[in-house]
Design a protein that fits this description.
The chain has 15 helices and 17 strands. It is α/β, with parallel strands linked by helices and 460 residues long. The strands form three sheets. Strands 3-4-5-2-6-7-1-8 form an eight-stranded mixed beta sheet, with helices on both faces. The longest helix is centred in the first third of the chain and has 16 residues.
């Protein structure tokens, strides 16, 4: 076994239930997966290991072919079953998942250890489903290893778990460990391919920040690239303030601590409501305050999602609006205050199969107006709201208690088939009701001087 670099050694020795390794390109992730899997197979007779990628070709190129060379007669590879079988009874299985239908191959399966290689390219739902297969009664370590880079469909999921360390009641913080490995930690790669570092340095700015420096707050393909969950240190330094000072001032960030809306002039701020219906998929209800300058504040939300991402709680409209009405009667920020604007997806006015969802809401004293459902203009209004002015102030804030917004909005990505639209295959329910709200109160973009571009003289 060739000697590991310090970060690889740290990952090899990590004993947490969930270990994330990587965070940038060229950190030696595939090497770690192969050797850790082989060491587990040799040291724990009978252990069952799974390695996954999005496609079989990726598995073949990155793991199966190198392991055929590495193991030779130490293990026998079964091409049909896609498994290495060791004389001691240990096995290393290979699986792929590129769509929901591929999850069927894992139904009822049990593994002791799972390596999700390039895990950021998997949908969050796939990750949760396959991880449920890491179980069994054998006295083997039960672990899940993720190798990943910033970006991809599950970017927000991994950022929440391993970077922000924000957990649900069912998740134990002590189970999670993150080892960030940059290309500069992989000296063997730099020695053999010195041009690789230069190729990363030449990337476009967003890709360079993610793949070279391991930045998780911005990534290629991110739909709301203006969105900042914390102040940008570079912008703060340029403005001569610390990130902590910027957070208190609400500059260079969209996330702020809640404040009492019943104090002082805030008592006169208008309250707004936005709603996207869901049953099998989550519903999303947002409450907003708007100050005298027209700045929006997302102050409360009700998000109907189970512990499984993008799975609705299946409350019928009656149950949803009964709970919403009670919240508005009892919450101190809403009690006794008129909701001056309330917008929702126009589809809730469909009465072709009986009472419309909008009519059900009206029976509980909750009245909506149809939101403007133009997608591209709507997304532009969200972009305009998220823009910072020359002093670093946006026109949309979110209280840090709005967990659904903070989890799902940063993870939205562009539709690969329509580069102007959001990918509707993602958990976009919160984003949709934000869009309806922003379209109901349109603003103009923040104008900044265009970058200087030198163009050739066509007459010369």
């Amino acid at each position: 076994m060739p000697p590991p670099n310090p970060k690889q050694r740290q990952a090899l020795l990590d004993r947490h239930r969930y270990v994330a390794y990587g965070g940038a390109r060229g950190g030696g992730k595939s090497w770690f997966v192969r050797w850790k899997a082989v060491l587990l197979a040799l040291n724990f007779p009978g252990i069952k290991i799974l390695i996954t990628r999005r496609t079989y070709r990726e598995l073949l190129n990155n793991h199966i072919t190198p392991l055929l060379t590495l193991l030779q007669k130490a293990a026998k590879y079964n091409t049909t079953e896609k498994v290495f079988k060791f004389p001691n009874g240990s096995t290393i299985w290979f699986g792929y998942c590129d769509c929901d239908a591929h999850l069927g191959q894992y139904q009822g399966a049990e593994y002791d250890v799972w390596f999700a290689d390039e895990a950021g390219q998997f949908q969050e739902e796939w990750l949760v489903a396959i991880d449920a297969c890491v179980r069994g009664v054998g006295a083997f370590p039960k672990r899940t290893y993720y190798t990943l880079n910033p970006g991809g469909p599950s970017h927000g999921y991994f950022k929440r778990l391993f970077l922000d360390r924000q957990y649900t009641p069912e998740e134990r913080p002590e189970d999670y460990s993150f080892i960030q490995a940059l290309v500069t930690d992989n000296q063997a790669l730099l020695d053999s391919q010195p041009e690789y570092l230069r190729s990363l340095e030449k990337l476009p700015p967003k890709l360079r920040e993610a793949w070279l420096y391991g930045r998780w707050d911005i990534f290629q393909g991110q739909f709301f690239e203006e969105l900042r969950l914390s102040p940008d240190p570079k912008r703060c330094a340029k403005a001569g303030i610390t990130p902590e000072q910027a957070a208190r001032q609400g500059r260079f960030t969209h996330v702020i601590a809640p404040f009492d809306l019943n104090q002082g002039e805030r008592r006169g701020w208008h309250i707004l409501r936005s709603y996207d219906f869901g049953y099998n998929k989550p519903f999303s209800l947002g409450y907003w305050a708007v100050d005298y300058d027209g700045v929006l504040y997302r102050i409360l939300e009700v998000y109907g999602c189970t512990q499984t991402p993008n799975e609705g709680v299946r409350w019928p409209p009656e149950e949803q609006f009964r709970r919403f009405a009670r919240l508005e009667r009892e919450h101190p920020w809403l009690r006794g205050r008129k909701i001056v604007d309330s917008v929702a997806d126009p589809s809730i006015w469909d009465a072709s199969r009986g009472e419309s969802i909008a009519d059900t809401a009206a029976r509980y004293g909750i009245y909506f107006t149809p939101g403007d459902n133009q997608r591209i203009p709507g997304w532009m209004q969200v972009h305009y709201r998220l823009q910072f002015d020359e002093l670093g102030y946006p026109r949309l804030y979110v209280f840090d208690t709005c967990a659904a917004f903070l989890r799902t909005m940063p993870a939205m990505m562009y539709d690969p088939r329509n580069p102007e639209d959001l990918d509707t295959g993602l958990e976009d329910h919160c984003a949709d009701e934000v869009r309806y709200l922003c379209m109901s109160r349109p603003v103009k973009p923040v104008h900044s001087p265009p970058p200087a571009i030198s163009l050739p003289n066509p007459l010369s």
